[in-house]
Amino acid sequence: MTTLTKKTVLITGASSGIGLACAEAFGREGARLILAARRKERLEALALELQKTYGTETLTLQLDVRNQPEVEKTFRDLPASWQDVELLLNNAGLSRGLDKLHEGKLEDWEEMIDTNVKGLLYVSRAIIPGMVARGKGTIINIGSIAGHEVYPGGNVYCATKFAVDALTRGLRHDLVDTPIRVCTVDPGLVETEFSMVRFHGNEQRAKTVYQNLHPLTGADVAETVLFCATRPPHVQIAEVIILPTNQASTTLVHRAPAGT
Ligand code: NDP
Ligand code: 8X3
């Protein structure tokens, strides 16, 4: 087993959903956490809670992963005691809209591509050289079932997650002669703020995504991420697809009212 006690873990998108649940899981395991996202006040509340519950040492970073100079500077200027990042969880991401491609909004496309693809690249470029120099590290990318199959209206979001899959595989090739592990955890439907963000705050529309279904929680995904992170150093879990029991694909979900 690889222990996480006192190991430095960097989580992007730690202010909500899967990233927040991963922070809780890694905190419970005794890791030191760098928590990054745009909503600093949420990160600070999480840091306080983790400190109280597990005595977790944290560093909170207000960071927009789309801003390359900011990403580069933030990680270059990390305090010395936080530079030794041993696990990078590239989780920050979002979807915007469910429009047909020929009716899509350009600003939605830009935001998804800039965050899910370019943001992941910028953070990886800033962190991985240190791992290579130190000869240790694990990178876990949060992909999606949407990186394996497309669905109506998924077009650009799916393309970004297909890109995450390609980047994960590419990175595994590039790091094959190092002790660094590269994994992807690819969930199906997880009830987080994801659909609220996708539908620009339309709560009613967001709720229907998970209606009459027992979706995954952020904690379910976090346990899988933790499993990948804690394998012995010679074991690299390349890819995990995790779905709710009643989801078979991006388009086949069995919905039944509770109790039926
Ligand atoms: P949430 O909306 O709950 O969380 C998204 C997180 O990403 C937030 O912490 C948000 O923080 C952060 N984020 C978004 N944009 C940026 C940015 N530009 N810079 C820094 N941080 C950013 O959704 P999830 O937890 O569900 O999503 C997490 C990941 O899981 C995403 O990559 C998503 O694609 C993926 N995923 C989600 C699934 C689902 O069904 N929910 C299924 C499969 C994959 P802030 O706004 O504070 O910056
Ligand atoms: C999120 C899952 O199916 O809504 O990546 O695209 S899905």
**CATH class label:** Alpha Beta
Shape, principal axes of CA atoms? globular
- Unreliable stretches (pLDDT < 50, length at least 5) are none
**Approximately what portion of the residues adopt beta-strand conformation?**
5-15%
Structural class: alpha/beta
The appropriate CATH architecture is 3-Layer(aba) Sandwich
Oligomeric category: single chain
| Major beta sheet, strand line-up | 3-2-1-4-5-6-7
What is the H/E string? EHEHEHEHEHEHHHE
Helix count equals 8
Give the rounded overall mean pLDDT. 98
The rounded Rg comes to 18 Å
Structure write-up:
This protein is an alpha/beta fold. Helices cover 42% and strands 15% of the residues. The chain has a single domain (8-242), classed as Rossmann fold (3-Layer(aba) Sandwich), CATH 3.40.50.720. The protein contains eight helices and seven strands. Strands 3-2-1-4-5-6-7 form a seven-stranded parallel sheet, sandwiched between helices. Helix 3 runs parallel beside helix 4. The radius of gyration is 18 Å and the shape is globular. The termini are far apart. The model has no long low-confidence stretch (mean pLDDT 98). The chain binds NADPH dihydro-nicotinamide-adenine-dinucleotide phosphate and 2-hydroxyethylsulfonic acid (8X3). The site of NADPH dihydro-nicotinamide-adenine-dinucleotide phosphate (NDP) has 31 residues, from helix 1, helix 4 and helix 6.
Concise summary:
The protein is α/β, with parallel strands linked by helices and 260 residues long. It is built from 8 helices and 7 strands; from the N terminus they run E-H-E-H-E-H-E-H-E-H-E-H-H-H-E.
